[in-house]
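FAQ: What does the model actually see?

It sees only this:
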Amino acid sequence: MTKEQAEYFRGVYDRQADRIYRISMIYLKNESDAEDALQSIFVKQIEKDKRFDDPEQEKAWYITVTKNYCKDVLKSSWSKHSSLYEMEEEPPAKEEDNDLKTDVANALNALPPVDREILYLYYYEGYKIKEIAKILNYRESTVGSKLVAARDRLKVKMEEDQNAR
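And it is asked to produce this:
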């Protein structure tokens, strides 16, 4: 790898690594699997020498590749044979469990993957409904209705969690 290639990929990594990791955590709910996804996605990108001129195209490409990678992992026989204990294991409680961010993150993780994905793209990545529809291959009306439903489910889940305390 040339110095120029190394600098380019280092820049891409700096721009995209956090996003890939967060999306992987949404799907895989496991730090080591999310780290594996991050590494695998970048290794493939380096091997293919994939480059982008447009930052938005780069961002959308990484979101789509990450989503597809995670779906493949979840379909694999390895994840299907994971024990129930591993799948339900929760991270250790932290001091800031009462913090709103933690409450939202916990409620988000309890939602179905489609809800998490749409909410993440809309609120964390700042995509518009039209852009989300293109990324996920849905109609705009479908994304709009799924977004409303996901918000409602998130609200209900957060209220349930508040009442359980």
